Amino acid sequence: MSVSLLRTGEGISDIYNRHVNTVYRIALTILNNIPEAEDAAQTVFMKLITSAKSFECDEHLKAWLIVTTQNICKDYLKSWWRKKRVSMETVEEQEDIPASLNGEVWSVISNLNERYKLPVYLHYYEGYKTEEIALMLGINHATIRTRLKTARAKLRLILEEGDYELE
Fold first, then answer.
1. Mind listing the pLDDT tens digit for each residue in 2-28?
2. Which domain, by its residues, includes 152?
3. Are residues 110 and 69 in the same domain?
C-alpha cells in the first residue's frame, strides 16, 4: 500500500531534519566541494517538494533521496560551468567538514576513484547492505561487493605504507 507524502511545511521540515545530513554527506562525497554539496542538497529537497511521488515507507523515501542526490551530483559534475571554473580549494582545505567525514581514514577515502567512494560511504558510514546499495545505484550486488573489497585493499595498502598527506 502506497502512502502519499505529506507536502506541508511541517511534513517537509520533518523529512528535511531526518535526512539532510545523509543527503549532504553523499553530495560532499561525490562533489568534493562544500558549497556545491550544499547546493546539491538544496536541489534534492526542492525536487522532493515539487515531486508528486508517493513513498511506501521511510526507507523508500531515503533510497529515493540517495539516488536523486547521486543523479543531481552527476549533473553538476558534467555541467559546462563546472568545467570552466578554477578550483580554489579542495575538501581538505575547506572548513566545516562534518565530524564523521573529518579524519585520517576519510581523507584517504576521499582520494579514491569515484566508483569506490560512494559504495564505501553508503556501506560503512550509512550502514546499508550491499544489496540495498546495488538497488539504489542500479548496479549488480556482486559488483558492489567487488568494489568494496577493492576499496578495502587499496585503503589498507595506502594506510600501511603511509603514502598519504594529512593536515
1. 444 445 677 888 889 999 999 999 998
2. 103-167
3. no
